[in-house]
Amino acid sequence: MTEHPGFGTMLAWLLDRRELGAQALADHAEVNADEVRAVLAGDGPGEALLRRLAPALGFHAVDLFVLAGLAVPDDMAPLDAAAAIWVKNTVTDAVRLPAAERRELLQLIRSMPQEERRSRFAPKPLMPLAGGPGSWVIRMLQYRNLSWSGMAHALASVTPTYLSAATYGVIGSGRKELTPRLVTDFAAVLGIDARDLAALSGVILREVPLPPTPEATDTADLLWEARRLSSEQARHVSELAGSTRGDSRDAHLMEMPGL
Fold first, then answer.
1. pLDDT (tens digit, 9 = 90+) per residue, 102-156?
2. Residue 211: Cβ within 10 Å count
3. Helix residue ranges per DSSP H, 112-230
4. Measured between alpha carbons, how far is 127 from 198 in angstroms, rounded to an integer?
5. Which of 9, 63, 199, 231 is most exposed, with the fewest beta carbons within 10 Å of its own?
6. DSSP labels for 99-117?
7. 133-142 and 61-68 are packed helices; what angle lies between their axes, rounded to 10 degrees?
8. DSSP annotation of 206
9. Which residues neighbour 94 within 8 Å (Cβ) at sequence distance 6 or greater?
10. In 3D, which of 51, 141, 26, 129 has the Cα closest to residue 91?
11. Residue 84 is inside which H or E element, if any?
């Protein structure tokens, strides 16, 4: 798939995989079923509808906006793009911590006070050849406040996917197609069911994917929660994760792709 099939078609694929009808989705989302049917028939979804559909589908609303090809509202964007470098370092360190300490780190992030937004989040342009699935998944990762390098570190830390930072830009441009392996690993870091992401991207999974590892699941949660942190808050979390880990980060980073 190289062109955007339309959000209604993608929603139909997802509902078909889940064996769910328009009425059932509408009831769960507490919206008028005619709105859902209109989208399935080809009408563009409105912002209010996407916000209601997201929890009913088990998705973050920002991901539905990306899938629909719509501008992401400011309230769904990461608070501070400058926090990206610290988020990347936190992930690298956190996955090497015991599960209990990863949970403590996540609780710390959730407990931090919400600061005011000082600038608008503007992700790096993807310049896709077409609105295909590669651009969707990379855009979703960007809205987890990950740069190309951050994506390389996150995926290499918790999945078998080991790519250079530049390759993520290539995927986002549509010059490298998604494979079943990539879909499964992207889904793990995004916190999305791999079968759902495969259905949305038109990739056939020949085998039932294994569940993500605890480290991958915790990484997805950490990335999502860390979106609300300022650069200074993210730096504090990163330094704490590094000191808790105790060993040398530098030796590990030398092994990571893109460096």
1. 999 999 999 999 999 988 999 988 887 767 899 999 999 999 999 999 999 999 9
2. 11
3. 133-142, 148-158, 165-173, 180-190, 194-201, 214-226
4. 23
5. 9
6. HHHHHHHHHHHHHSPPPPP
7. 140
8. S
9. 102, 105, 218, 219, 222, 241
10. 141
11. helix 84-94
**What domains appear along the chain, each with residue ranges and CATH number?**
7-73 (1.10.260.40), 81-253 (no CATH)
19-66 pLDDT, tens digit per residue, is 999 999 999 999 999 999 999 999 999 999 999 999 999 999 999 999
Q: Compute the residue count for the chain.
A: 259
Instruction: Please provide the DSSP assignment of 185-198 as one string.
Output: HHHHHHT--HHHHH
Structure tokens at 214: 């605890």
Nearest CA-CA partner of 46 in 31, 27, 56: 31
* pTM as predicted: 0.91
Q: Which of 192, 196, 214 is nearest to 205 (CA)?
A: 196
CA-based max dimension of the chain: 57
Q: Which helix (H) or strand (E) holds 142?
A: helix 133-142
Give residue for tokens 């330094």.
239
